[in-house]
Amino acid sequence: MLRLLLRLLLILLVLVLVLGLVAAAVGPLLIDPDPAEGETRVQALERPGSGFVGIGPPDGGEVTLHVAERTPAGDGAAAPTFVLLHGFTFNLYTWERIMAPLAERGRVIAYDQIPYGLSAKPLPGAGAHADPYAKSSALARLMTLLDTLGVEQAYLVGNSSGGTLALEAALAYPERVRGLVLLAPWVNSKRPILPQWLVDLPQTQRLTLLLARTLGTDMPLLDYAYADPGRIDEERRARAAVHQEMANWDAAWAALLARSLTDPVEIARQLTQIDTPALVITGAADRIVPPADTLAAARALPNATFAELPGCGHLPQEECPALVMDIIDQWLDQAPAAGDDRAAAH
Asked: Which domain of life is it from (predicted)?
């Protein structure tokens, strides 16, 4: 009798294991693969204070970027240009609270990096969109936008993964970057990197689509990025979700996520080669990029100044705009020069 019970228990365990494997293999395939419906006409998405710029990538075709610009009062011909680069899942509206005060210093340009905000939602394919979410493509789009808008040299202001892009631009095109303002730059990535064959599995593709929909619908990173989520008003939440108005946004987000699963962040190994003057800022309550990681990045840069802002999270430009502008103004007034080895992280 005992043997029979043990045999039945073994059969039950095997059955549970088999069912678990079947569920793992088949379950993701039940996720609806049809992309989100929405607007496809740029004209219908126009908003006060921003517009759309078509840029032609080197391999042909055109990508439409959602761009907001502020210019200084009076003659701003000699004033510097600031280009604002948002982070993962966010858009140009993350900079709203510092664009006007920053425009007192010079021309300010912010844009939605694809596939976020109201910029294009390309999918990987042939021609111009063969690999739209490679790091090299993001860098090429930034440089092409600067050329299109007639910007020869700019301060790059980057938050999180936007800080990563700013650093890569300073490394590849130092003559185009006058200075860097890095708010919690995403430098020391600890996420796993998966083999391409695993990412290409239909199950992984569907799970990636589900993750994209969760991140883009519920916007959980917005709350997590604040030290005090109670500071987020409904207008800010609405602006964070403007991508939902566009068709195929979820498929485009999923394509970016899939690319990131095989694309490691390697800029940390090259920081010592970037001598562009840099202001590196962390929020003391940042739960996404630990302040210690941001301090380490500042110390690795040859010409960096470090600042920690109390009571601020991962989006200090939103949560603590006055503190951010105070430290930027102080840094700009010091006007560090490229290659000046006097500056050090402190």
From this structure: Bacteria
CA distance 236 to 226: 12
Q: Whose CA is closest to 244, among 18, 80, 89, 26?
A: 89
Closest CA to 313 of 282, 280, 286: 286
318, two tokens? 């939103």
171 lies in some domain = yes
- Concerning whether 314 is annotated as a catalytic residue, the answer is yes
Residue owning tokens 């409904």: 234
| 3-state SS class at 78 | coil
Q: What are phi and psi of 260, to 5 degrees?
A: -70, -25
User: Per residue in 281-300, pLDDT tens?
Assistant: 999 999 999 999 999 999 99
Buried b (16+ CB within 10 A) or exposed e, 210-237: eebbebbeebebbeebbbeeeebeeebe
Structure token digits, residue 175: 């003559």
Phi-psi category of residue 330: left, alpha or beta, with phi > 0 → left and psi -120 to 50 → alpha:
alpha
| Within a domain: 45 | no
CATH code, domain with 91: 3.40.50.1820
Residue at 221 is within a domain: yes
The boundaries of the domain holding residue 139 are 52-334
Nearest 10 degrees: Cα torsion 154, 166, 247, 245: -70
Q: Which tokens go with 104?
A: 């007192």
**What is the spatial distance between Cα 5 and Cα 12, in angstroms, rounded to a whole number?**
10
Given 86, 129, 243, 314, the catalytic residue: 314
Q: How many structural domains is the chain composed of? A: 1
Q: What is the pLDDT of residue 345?
A: 39
Query: For position 46, what pLDDT does the model report?
Result: 87
C-alpha–C-alpha distance, residues 253 and 4, integer Å = 53
Residue 279, in any domain of the structure: yes
**44 to 51, 112, 115, 120, 237: CA distances (angstroms):** 11, 17, 18, 14, 21
Q: Residue 142 and residue 59: Cα distance in Å, rounded?
A: 15
Determine the Cα–Cα distance for residues 123 and 144; give it in Å rounded to an integer: 20
Q: pLDDT confidence of 95, banded at 50, 70, 90?
A: very high
